[in-house]
Design goal:
Length: 600
């Protein structure tokens, strides 16, 4: 049988026919042959593995699925070891979500005025299941999906900066961070915020790239998406307020410098984007004014960072870094290093990341880089100046064991810099590979072949080493939970002996975990959750609760000292490192003596 002649391979150097697309070329915006939807762009013609390009439709989903699978494994490990409720803040977040529905007077007023509300609202669909509340699993869907979304976002962003194999390195390093894996299973806010933060930067880069390509359809879709993500950040962490303002400025400048015709088409969408961005802070000001009586309660109220620091710091003393930008910078960068890398390799990681950021900044004027809006990934560095300022002037201390006073407090704040460290360290590593490729010696050829697999191995090794030495954020939770959990366990034994249908007076600000452990409803507690009945009960504890739990120094202890009549002390619970709890039975309480509920 005669062989048919083989088709000659195309020569890349030969001139192309009009309209023919070169292999590996990225086509964006109005230059694309397809104009039906923003999902059709950018178009990449497969064939060039060395191309630095935006993702194509559908490319992000496998990374999201991989993130779900990894976070599920992390959940199994953390649940088995009892890590989900190590942080007192995690217990408090769950309690806030629970009291939205489980309170004498449930509703939005139960959100409180300091912690931002989105994480609590996202936990509401699962929090009324008693088992999910007691175990902390009510927060798992929010945190796991957020982790998976942030992994997909890192991939999407890294493909705009580096070649495929190095984008894989950046994403792997981020996804296998042991601290992040732990946080992806808890009721803490870091996983959710990182997802919103990363995707808002993705939307900004893609939106401005579309503006530069004169593609109004894609630009307005990405800008509106960025606005919604900013709104989510504003209602998750206060970092998001600053990030949102900077992203708004980026879009404003990009539209102002665009083509006049495009500017006119974008004007109504930019107005909508602006309204969405400012809606978050304005709504929070209104909430604080309406429910807390002070529109700046979150900044100067009794539970604000400034007031907590004032109560906990010794008289006349402040934490290191207070009003000192140098010490603040040292504490935050050192914390970010330890959060991201095992042992002392964080110094090398930080140096590589800073070099990668400088490389990206230096090549920002290159036409291809400018078209991809690559330089907007530098927005990932915003947490660095934000937290340095917050430590110095915002009453936000950070303590890590590597620096005096060698304690554990707020170490998780360094996680905000993990996306920048992951992305720009990989970009720096890619530059080293390019250096190897520029040499023809035998050692350079070998280094070129093994450098990327070595980097992938180092990502996995970093995760294993962090777990072996116990990651810093997890270690903080373990250290700080020892005395609290022991005290709350003992307190829960006492609560278990009290009938479920009688009111128990107790301050839940610091030890709501005892109520959670025993599975008692929050509506059965006379506490700060229902301020009106709380203030009345503080003036006469014996007539407003069947049992009274006074923890030394709390409002109940002060109320009992001022109004001890009708109370019989039945038990005292003392645990090392915690104030003693005195438990009283009321001799004056009857079911008819409870304060009637007001009409709402």
């Amino acid at each position: 049988m005669a062989k048919s002649p083989s088709k000659p391979l195309p020569n890349p150097s030969e001139p192309k026919k009009p309209g023919e697309i070169k292999i590996g070329k990225v086509i964006i915006g109005r230059n694309t042959p397809r104009k039906s939807s923003f999902r059709d762009t950018p178009i990449w013609v497969p064939g060039d593995p060395e191309a630095v390009r935006p993702v194509v439709p559908g490319e992000t989903y496998p990374l999201f699925v991989a993130g779900i699978l990894i976070s599920f494994v992390a959940l199994l490990v953390c649940y088995r070891h009892g890590y989900l409720l190590l942080y007192g803040d995690a217990v408090a977040h769950l309690a806030i979500a629970r009291r939205i529905l489980d309170a004498k007077w449930p509703g939005l007023a139960q959100l409180g005025g300091v912690w931002l509300p989105l994480p609590h609202i996202l936990m509401v669909p699962f929090i009324m299941n008693l088992r999910m509340w007691q175990t902390g699993l009510a927060a798992a869907p929010m945190s796991m999906l957020s982790y998976a979304a942030s992994v997909a976002g890192i991939w999407r962003l890294s493909r705009r900066l580096m070649r495929l194999r190095w984008a894989l390195v950046a994403t792997t390093f981020y996804a296998l961070n042991a601290n992040l894996l732990f946080l992806s299973t808890t009721a803490m806010t870091e996983a959710l915020f990182l997802a919103l933060f990363i995707w808002s930067v993705v939307a900004t880069a893609e939106g401005i790239s579309a503006l530069r390509a004169n593609d109004a359809v894609t630009a307005r879709a990405r800008m509106v998406l960025a606005g919604l993500l900013i709104l989510g950040q504003v209602f998750t962490r206060y970092d998001g307020w600053i990030i949102g303002a900077i992203l708004w400025l980026c879009f404003a400048w990009a539209i102002f410098t665009s083509d006049p015709a495009l500017r006119r088409r974008m004007r109504p969408w930019f107005i909508l984007f602006t309204l969405v961005c400012v809606a978050g802070p304005l709504l929070w000001f209104w909430y604080n004014a309406h429910f807390e009586g002070d529109w700046l309660d979150f900044m100067r109220g009794p539970y604000s960072a400034a007031q907590i620091e004032r109560r906990t710091a010794p008289p006349g003393q402040h934490y290191r870094g207070w009003h000192n930008m140098g010490w603040a910078a040292l504490f935050y960068t050192r914390t970010a290093q330890i959060d991201a890398a095992a042992w002392e390799t964080g110094f090398a990681l930080m140096a590589a990341s800073l070099y990668g950021a400088w490389l990206s900044f230096k090549r920002r004027t290159t036409s291809a880089v400018h078209a991809r809006a690559e330089s907007f990934a530098l927005l990932l560095w915003i947490p660095l100046p934000f937290y340095i300022y917050s430590i110095a002037y915002g009453s936000v201390p950070i303590f890590i064991p590597q620096l005096w006073p060698h304690a554990y407090y707020n170490a998780r704040y360094g996680m905000e810099l993990l996306p920048a460290l992951s992305l720009y360290a990989a970009l720096s590593a890619e530059r080293l590979e390019i250096f190897f490729q520029s040499h023809t010696t035998a050692w350079a050829r070998i280094a070129t072949r093994i450098w990327q697999p070595t980097a992938m191995f180092l990502c996995v090794a970093n995760c294993v080493a962090m777990m072996y030495f116990v990651p810093l954020v997890l270690k903080e939770g373990i250290v700080n939970a020892k005395t609290r959990i022991s005290f709350e366990t003992d307190l829960s034994f006492a609560l278990e002996e009290m009938p479920q249908n009688v009111p128990v007076m107790m301050s839940l600000t610091n030890h709501v975990g005892a109520v959670q452990t025993v599975g008692r409803t929050l509506r059965s507690m006379v506490s700060e959750n229902d301020d009106q009945s709380w203030q009345i009960a503080l003036k006469d504890p014996a007539h407003h609760a069947a049992y009274v739990i006074a923890i030394a120094g709390d409002p109940v202890a002060k109320a009992v000292a001022a109004h001890p009549d009708g109370l019989n002390e039945i038990e005292v619970i003392c645990t090392t490192g915690q104030p003693c709890a005195h438990i009283y039975q009321s001799l004056a309480w009857t079911p008819t003596s409870q304060t009637p509920s007001p009409h709402h």
